[in-house]
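Handout, page 2. Input:
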Amino acid sequence: MFDHILVPVDGSNDGWVALEQAVEVAREEGSTIQALFVADSRIIEAPYWTAAPVDDPLPGGDAEQTEVALTIGQMISDFGDKVLVEAERRCQEAGVSCKVEYRVGAVVNEILDASEHADLVVIGRYGQGAAWAGPNFGSVFEAVVRHAKAPVLAAQAEVRSLLKILVAYDGSPRAMEALRIGANFAKSHDRELVVLVVNEGHPEMQDVFARLKDWLARHDVAAKTLFEEGSPAETILRVEREEACSLIVMGAYGHSRFLQIFFGSTVDEVVHQAITPVLVCH
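Output:
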């Protein structure tokens, strides 16, 4: 199911946790990991722009500043090479196939481009200075979770064995994709599966729950099914703790994208507050 796993690495602790979490999945799936280091072109190119005279439309004319830019670029390149060597070493020690790639560009764009060829992206919540800035503000992590073409596994602060899976299901197409992925992983690797439907005061959710149970029966999937009243994010996080789940699987932004831009979403809240990894399915 996850033959090709993309892991952005930047030398940060959370990046290494993401790699180790990817290794946990790769061992079971027989996957190949692609460790990707992206050198931020804005940092490398900054001296060119700061060197330009105010009335000079073409930056980069100052030889000294050009040399600074080249030096910064070489330092980042050397650091990136060391990070990728370490990533490859960790994968080899774990017995997992690994490919490494170094890119220069806009970090988010390069990761999203690479995600188009991946079956799964595993990413740490914080990188080198790239903290989650809240549901309405940007970061590399948030942009990847929102926009990657492949499912994204948001790793936690420590590696978790994915022994019990919680799928949050609301009947939307992306929630169905989450259900398929969660059910297939649980069935293939003999994991416990809990599927949760949260009713926030909508009568049609009873029908959603009935269709869910029918789907599980037709596909011969053993699961504990829960129908809970309350706020979706709060209920998912509560069930995560009460059921001692080690992975949450949910669909990405299944409802109004316009409202999510201004007010956040269930996905944002769960990814931000969960104590376990969260797999966001696109």
